[in-house]
Amino acid sequence: MLKIADLNHWAGGLIVACENGKDPIWKIHSFSLDMNSLYHLGTKIGLVTGRRLHTGQPGDTFSAGQKPIMEIRMKEADMAEANASNVALDLLRIHSIITRALSITSEKSQRFAQDGFPDASTKEGFLCYARSFVSVLHGHHLTENELAFPYFRERLPDAPYDLLIVQHQELVHVLDEVKAAIEEVSADRQAAASLNRLNQALRRLADLWHPHIGIEQDHFTAAKLEALINREEHIRLGKLFAEHGQKHMGPGYLVVPFLLYNLTPEERVILARNMPFLLTHLLVPVVWKARWASMRPFLLS
Predict the structure, then answer these.
(1) Residues 6+ away with beta carbon under 8 Å from 270
(2) What are the pLDDT digits (tens) for 118-148?
(3) How far apart are CA 289 and CA 269, in angstroms?
């Protein structure tokens, strides 16, 4: 059997998706869901055929219900196909996520400093969102420093790589201030003072962030990289960069929905093509749904 998606990083070996010929097969490694939850999970991804419920005991393998999953895959493949892979656009997409999250976190920190949190759930959601923002920005910069910049340097030697790396270091310093302020907000019942400190740190971060991505986007354009790299290499790099970034972001049950739902639905489909199918169609919308639910007010629909 050809393994097509291994979710060990995100799910701790929860599920492995395999393909045997044309029929997808899920192998359950471990589950702690009650019967109602499992039935709901199964109907979401086509594990229920007729009225028969596949209970999914550890070690079991079973048909995934080829038609529903293949229909989803074909529809999303068509949407993604209309947007040819280009690693410059992949980086731009991550920049868009971070830019929106920076704006939302800054705006909400100022509002909550003035008016307070309306309830405990809102505070929890804000903290989850802000922590995810820090994690994603950190992972993104590691991917650029360790993979993207060394690769681009050989093909686009005129870009100011040394300056960009120095700017990353400056951003890391301010990001540490943001992270510390987030934890102060978490520990502070009143939180107004710590929210003001967070907002100030976010403003300093924005002052560095926007000029920085301007330089990157001026030098690493889709047109330049399309001329230098063939389509297969763009696809390979997109997956490589995504996997590297995800290894340095977490927790997955917050970071993955954060990545997906800070994008419009059209852009979301394109980003998701570099993620395992079960991650975006099983773990995020079903298994992890309750764990990231408090972030919903800060995300796009």
Answers:
(1) 79, 80, 83, 89, 93
(2) 999 999 999 999 999 999 999 999 999 999 9
(3) 18
Domains of the chain: 2-68 (no CATH), 83-298 (1.20.120)
Mapped onto helix, strand or coil, the DSSP state of residue 15 is strand
DSSP label at residue 50: T
- 3-class DSSP assignment, residue 52: strand
pTM of the model: 0.78
**What residues does 28 pair with on adjacent strands?**
15
Sheet harboring 2-6: ordered strands across?
Answer: 2-6, 15-20, 23-28, 61-63
Strands (E), 21-169: 23-28, 61-63
131 contacts: CB under 8 Å, gap ≥ 6? 179, 182, 254
How far apart CA 93 and CA 270 sit, in angstroms, is 9
Asked if residues 14 and 7 have their Cβ atoms less than 8 Å apart, the reply is yes
Q: What share of the chain is helix, strand, coil (3-state, %, to 5)?
A: 70, 5, 20
pLDDT digits (tens, 9 = 90+) for 45-97: 443 333 233 334 444 443 444 444 445 445 555 544 545 789 999 999 999 99
